[in-house]
Write a structure and sequence with these properties.
370 residues; alpha/beta; Isopropylmalate Dehydrogenase; 2 domains; ten-stranded mixed sheet; 22% strand; binds nicotinamide-adenine-dinucleotide
Length: 370
């Protein structure tokens, strides 16, 4: 007789503020149902971060919360922030919790898939959009957001004779190790997808971008199955609109990725559909969260679309728990729910067979269709 035992994964759940707890609650129920079907167990630890943590502990992220996250297999986050904390000083705002979690968990790569579901094609601002399925791999802990910055008073003049006055500067600096680490991540994801990698930079102007290209060319032979191409960021932003379905994996720096991932997200119709993941070193907990914020304007109304959180949970299963079957099951159920016509107000479209849905209806139907 064979011994059967179930693995129990530890998941830290940070609902956060506004619609965060509503959408994570839906995602947790879907995770439980999918895990049940696939024969593994989940242990959830509910934690506070953001505004609700300020209310209870006086700070947006406590050391205890961070430690609990470090001791988990993965973190599922809703969203943080809201009007209530708008007057809190900048260094104590709810959003500081995100920076604290990223730094504290060593999350250096941010993954933002942009998938246009056929059923939502008419919600895309692109005419005749179809077959869009791309992944942006963004470096998250280096580059201009973390480089030297400051201000100084200059006594120089411009060519028209006016005095320069105050000069502010921010520095883009990347080490070989940081670049190799994120490029390898890009190659690995391309290997698991359609084997196409686009390295996006500004190598015609920036020295740091030229180093990205050199390193990409050195790493490429390790992944002979992957076709690599290079695009300047300005051209890439045009091509994302012009031929979005040609892209598979895009790998890029912190700031370029920040901008391009929002652009790519919009192509897919609604912010309520966009999941994301932030990963660190292999074996360390990743953090999964919808791209949207806490949407205080609709919190408590039942209008929040939980699909981005549910799709983030699918990413968590795939990339932190290696439970691809459960991830596929969830993604497929989301497609079926869209196909059946259920739409929250953010993706509502007119037409036959459209059923106006609230957060709970989406949760129940995703679970039913697993
Ligand atoms: P937001 O994403 O919260 O909302 C923008 C608009 O999209 C709103 O009209 C909102 O109702 C709608 N929306 C967002 N998510 C939705 C969903 N799941 N279903 C239906 N509609 C949805 O952005 P914002 O209004 O700029 O920010 C609100 C708060 O969230 C701010 O405090 C901001 O700092 C914070 N924020 C947090 C995160 C995060 O926690 N990762 C990200 C962005 C913004």
């Amino acid at each position: 007789m064979s011994l059967r035992y179930k693995i129990a994964y530890k998941i830290a759940v940070i609902g956060g503020d506004g619609i965060g707890p509503e959408v994570t609650s839906a995602a947790v129920d879907v995770m439980k149902a999918a895990a049940d079907k696939c024969g593994f167990e989940l242990e959830f630890k509910y934690l506070k971060a953001g505004g609700c943590s300020i209310d209870e502990f006086g700070i947006p992220l406590t050391e205890e919360t961070l430690e609990e996250c470090r001791n988990s297999d993965a973190v599922l986050l809703g969203a943080v922030g809201g009007y209530k904390w708008d007057s809190v000083p900048a260094d104590k705002r709810p959003e500081r919790a995100l920076l604290g979690l990223r730094a504290g968990l060593g999350l250096y790569s941010n993954l933002r898939p942009a998938i246009l579901f056929d059923e939502l094609a008419d919600a895309s601002p692109i005419k005749n959009a179809k077959n869009i399925d791309l992944l942006i791999v963004r470096e998250l802990t280096g580059g201009i957001y973390f480089g030297d910055h400051g201000r100084y008073e200059s006594d120089e003049c411009l060519s028209d004779g006016s005095e320069k006055g105050i000069v502010a500067y921010d520095t883009e600096a990347y080490s070989e190790a940081e670049i190799s680490r994120i490029l390898r991540e890009g190659f690995r994801f391309a290997m698991g997808r359609r084997h196409k990698l686009t390295v996006v930079d500004k190598a015609n102007v920036l020295e740091s971008s030229r180093l990205w290209r050199e390193i990409a060319a050195k790493i490429a032979p390790e992944f002979p199955e992957v076709t690599v191409d290079y695009l300047y960021v300005d051209n890439c932003s045009m091509q994302l609109i012009n031929r979005p379905s040609d892209f598979d994996v895009i790998v890029t720096s912190n700031m370029f990725g920040d901008i391009l991932s929002d652009e790519a997200g919009m192509i897919t119709g609604s912010i309520g559909m966009l999941p994301s993941a932030s990963l660190g070193a292999p074996g360390k907990p990743g953090m999964y969260e919808p791209v949207h914020g806490s949407a205080p304007d609709i919190a408590g109304s039942g209008k929040a679309n939980p699909m981005a959180a549910i799709l983030s949970a699918a990413m968590l299963f795939r990339w932190s728990l290696d439970q691809a079957e459960a991830a596929d099951m969830i993604e497929n159920a989301v497609r079926q729910v869209l196909k059946a016509g259920y739409r929250t107000p953010d993706i509502i479209s007119s037409g036959e067979g459209i059923i106006e849905a609230d957060t709970d209806m989406i949760r129940e139907n995703v679970i039913k269709l697993l």
